[in-house]
Amino acid sequence: MRRAWSTPPRPTDRPVWELRNKQGFAVLVRHAIDGFRAHPPKGGMPALSGDEVRDAVFYMSAGRSK
């Protein structure tokens, strides 16, 4: 199943995460913290710390690197 970049993929959507993981973990975290395309910074939850966002990205991306 192909998902638009404006829709966050579910952790079980392995093909989409494999493509995103190729960008590198640091890029994924930066996009999550700063916002990217239609995604708001910190997923629309500005009270989250950078570490909390990083941990969420780690979980979502199936822990490819940390």
Describe this structure in words.
- It comes from Massilia genomosp. 1.
- This is Cytochrome c domain-containing protein.
- The chain is mainly alpha-helical and about 70 residues long.
- It has one domain (about 15-60).
- Helix content is about 45%, strand content about 0%.
- It is globular and about 30 Å long.
- It starts with 13 loop residues before the first helix and ends in a 6-residue tail after the last helix.
- The relative contact order is 0.21.
- The mean pLDDT is about 85.
Secondary structure: elements and pairs:
Layout: H1 14-21, H2 25-34, H3 50-60
Helix pairs in contact: 2-3
Number of strands: 0
The value of Rg in angstroms is 11 Å
**How many structural domains does the protein architecture include?**
1
* Element string (H = helix, E = strand): HHH
Determine the fraction of residues in helical runs and give it as a percent range. Answer: 40-55%
Stretches where pLDDT is under 50 for at least 5 consecutive residues are: none
Biggest sheet, open or closed, and with what strands and sense? none
Structural class: mainly alpha
End-to-end CA span: 27 Å
* Silhouette: globular
Strand content: under 5%
Mean pLDDT: 84
Q: DSSP helix count?
A: 3
Organism: Massilia genomosp. 1
Protein name: Cytochrome c domain-containing protein
